[in-house]
Design a protein that fits this description.
Layout lengths: L1 H8 L2 H24 L5 H6 L22 H27 L6 H27 L7 H28 L5 H26 L11 H24 L9
Length: 238
């Protein structure tokens, strides 16, 4: 039975499916490389912020947050809020004007992620200049980042399942989960390359934030061409 599974899963046609999906997944790797920095680079930035939430903020106004709590609390909260908003309001509204394919959602999500990194890059520039910045602005960036997560992560998972033939669904799901790991390895590789021997960074302060911002915008631009060439095959109900 194992030989039959291997033969069916890795047939010539199925290998073509893996190749096409791997191209799309390579862009998702970049997404995860940036997204997971909410627990590293963003958290380091949060240590320098005024973490007392403004008094006018509902429920949390006046509360001082720990640096590790900014992403740990707000990202899951925003996910719970934004998934139904996108599913029942934003996507149906946009589709009234423009067809929204899964690849178009993913591509848009990459551009949105770039916007979130512009916000944290500007925050870091202010911190580098010695100015005090409220944690509210990083929470705002987290909101934008979470919107990107809804468009890229959630859509990519559904898209991968739909594109995989019945015999390959487990394999393709594993490949999708691999993108998370590869994204973290990519971040580690970049950190290694920009680190000097004395432990300092070749991209200090806001420079590293802008590096990642430029990278995700370049990724989103190249994705436009990859998405146009992709030949979709829907196997969702198989």
């Amino acid at each position: 039975r194992g030989k039959e599974y291997f033969k069916e899963t890795f047939s010539g046609e199925n290998l073509k499916v893996i190749g096409r999906l791997s191209l799309i997944f390579s862009f998702v790797v970049i997404f995860w490389a940036l997204f997971d920095q909410i627990g590293t680079l963003w958290q380091i930035q949060a240590r320098s912020l005024n973490r007392v939430i403004p008094d006018g903020f509902p429920l949390f106004g006046g509360v001082e947050m720990l640096a590790a709590q900014v992403s740990a609390i707000w990202n899951p909260l925003f996910i719970l809020i934004l998934i139904p908003i996108f599913s029942y309001f934003i996507y149906p509204f946009v589709e009234g004007f423009v067809p929204l394919s899964p690849l178009r959602k993913i591509g848009t999500g990459l551009w949105v992620m770039g916007i979130s990194f512009i916000v944290v890059s500007l925050i870091q520039e202010q911190l580098d200049a010695g100015r005090e910045i409220s944690v509210f602005w990083q929470i705002f960036a987290c909101f934008i980042l979470t919107a990107s997560e809804v468009m890229v992560s959630v859509t990519s998972l559904e898209f991968a399942y739909a594109q995989a033939p019945k015999s390959m669904k487990s394999m393709v799901m594993a490949l999708y989960l691999l993108t998370v790991s590869l994204g973290n390895y990519l971040t580690s590789a970049v950190k290694f390359l920009i680190a000097r021997e004395d432990g300092s960074s070749r991209l200090p302060g806001a420079q590293e934030f802008w590096f990642w911002t430029i990278l995700v915008f370049l990724t989103a631009f190249v994705f436009l061409f990859a998405a146009k060439k992709y030949k979709s095959q829907d196997h969702f109900h198989q």
